[in-house]
Amino acid sequence: MVLQKFIYVTAGAALLLGLAACDEAEQGRILRYEKGVYLGPTDTQISEETREVLRARTRLQGGG
Fold first, then answer.
1. CA 37, 42, 45, 50: dihedral to nearest 10 degrees?
2. In degrees rounded to 5, what are phi and psi of residue 34?
3. What distance in Å separates the CA atoms of residue 30 and residue 32, rounded to the nearest whole number?
4. pLDDT tens, 4-61?
């Protein structure tokens, strides 16, 4: 009887530990990688205004 309770408690603890490991932030992440292939989301196009702001910042950082 004591052994049976121990088994149930251990199984319950293992189940809770397994469920706690299922973090929502880790759902949907890439698990299989292909060498040389980017499998992430596609980049979005930036506006011409944003592009010009980035060019200006690059000029400032370049010191010229």
1. -90
2. -115, 125
3. 6
4. 999 999 999 888 887 777 777 777 777 788 899 888 888 999 999 999 999 999 999 9
